[in-house]
């Protein structure tokens, strides 16, 4: 049997995930028509290029050979990220209306309910032992706290004092935390021991870091350069800063500050970020995280079909898509 890819699985189950969310929305009752409509508009607007909602189903497949029991967790994962991505855009200053008929203030309310109360209702609706249900809800709450902690650290990042380790700490919270949350939830649902659940949590942590780095690269290759415009301290920026000679180390924070409004500053900073030596080190660091993710999957073992799909997903997230000198096109596109 050929390994299932996460895209294959999503094609098979996307309608089931949508049905889980629809059921949860209908369960809010007739007194919540406005809430239901607002969440649906936010979901319709917030489409994702990579359907990672199936991640908990893959984890459950590795453990039991069956993905369907984790479909409610896939709905939780989708709702969580829909909410978090909107709130992240708002924090970055992109709080424009996300959809026709839904202004920014309404979208915030939809994100709060859609990312918190609705996932809890989905978990509580499952026929599970109370201890399992409680553990799943605890993971959900703790995941939010961890992610917000990382997001706050990211927002307060000081370019002048940034290091690889400081950015990695923020990434492990703001992106690793949510993925660790959902992989741990899938492990708990599968009936695993605490030790095995911790391994899945470790996998979620490193996968989240890889996916954040992939997103950082994507932001540059598409020419959006939102991280530069927002003053976000990315891992690549911290890496270049840490390795820079003293004069350049003083100049980079000045460039980062000017990049919000100056295309010339963005171009100069991108030239530094995309220098061959900087990308060589970046590639090595990505490879280190990729190897760690594969080692955890080696230790976990389990159903080979779904484990292979997770390995391919790790490799996707660990792609090096930046190339030296690509910044000129990126600035023009931006």
Beta strand count:
0
CATH architecture: Orthogonal Bundle
Q: Mind describing the biggest β-sheet?
A: none
Number of helices: 15
- Which stretches of 5+ consecutive residues score pLDDT under 50? 328-334
Note the beta-strand portion: under 5%
Basic shape: globular
Determine the N-to-C terminus distance: 44 Å
Number of domains: 1
Rg calc: 20 Å
Under CATH, the homologous superfamily reads Farnesyl Diphosphate Synthase
Mean pLDDT: 91
Q: Can you write the helix and strand succession as a string?
A: HHHHHHHHHHHHHHH
CATH topology name, in short, is Farnesyl Diphosphate Synthase
SS-based structural class? mainly alpha
CATH C-level:
Mainly Alpha
Helix content: over 70%
In brief:
The protein has 334 residues and is mainly alpha-helical. 75% of the residues lie in helices and 0% in strands.
Tell me what you see in this structure.
The chain has 334 residues and is mostly helical. It has one domain (6-333): Farnesyl Diphosphate Synthase, CATH 1.10.600. It is 75% helix and 0% strand. The protein has 15 helices and no strands. It starts with 5 loop residues before the first helix and ends with a helix.
Topology summary:
Layout: H1 6-26, H2 33-45, H3 55-64, H4 71-91, H5 104-124, H6 130-155, H7 164-189, H8 194-221, H9 226-230, H10 235-243, H11 246-258, H12 263-273, H13 276-300, H14 304-317, H15 327-333
């Amino acid at each position: 049997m050929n390994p299932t890819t996460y895209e294959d699985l999503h094609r098979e189950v996307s309608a089931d995930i949508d049905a889980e969310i629809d059921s949860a929305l209908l369960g809010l009752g007739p007194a919540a028509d406005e809430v239901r409509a607002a969440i649906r508009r936010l979901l319709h607007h917030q489409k994702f290029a990579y359907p990672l909602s199936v991640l908990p189903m893959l984890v459950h497949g590795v453990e039991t050979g069956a993905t369907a029991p984790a479909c409610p967790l896939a709905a939780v994962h989708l709702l969580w990220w829909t909410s978090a991505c909107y709130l992240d855009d708002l924090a970055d200053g992109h709080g424009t209306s996300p959809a026709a008929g839904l202004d920014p203030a309404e979208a915030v309310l939809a994100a709060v309910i859609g990312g918190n109360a609705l996932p809890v209702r989905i978990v509580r609706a499952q026929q599970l032992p109370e201890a399992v249900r409680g553990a799943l809800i605890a993971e959900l709450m703790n995941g939010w706290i961890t992610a917000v902690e990382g997001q706050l650290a990211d927002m307060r990042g000081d370019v002048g004092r940034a290091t690889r380790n400081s950015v990695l700490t923020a990434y492990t919270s703001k992106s690793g935390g949510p993925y660790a949350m959902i992989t741990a939830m899938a492990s708990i649902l599968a009936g695993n021991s605490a030790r095995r659940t911790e391994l899945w949590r470790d996998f979620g942590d490193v996968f989240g870091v890889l996916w954040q780095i992939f997103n950082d690269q994507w932001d540059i290759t598409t020419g959006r350069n939102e991280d530069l415009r927002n003053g976000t301290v990315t891992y690549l920026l911290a890496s270049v800063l840490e390795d820079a000679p003293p004069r350049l180390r003083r100049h980079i924070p000045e460039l980062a500050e000017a990049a919000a409004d100056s295309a010339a500053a963005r171009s100069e900073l991108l030239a530094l970020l995309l220098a061959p030596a900087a990308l060589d080190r970046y590639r090595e660091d990505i490879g280190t995280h990729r190897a760690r993710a594969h080692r955890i999957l080696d230790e976990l073992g389990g159903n080979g079909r779904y484990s292979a799909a997770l390995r391919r997903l790790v490799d996707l997230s660990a792609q090096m898509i930046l190339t030296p000198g690509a910044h000129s096109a990126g600035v023009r596109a931006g």
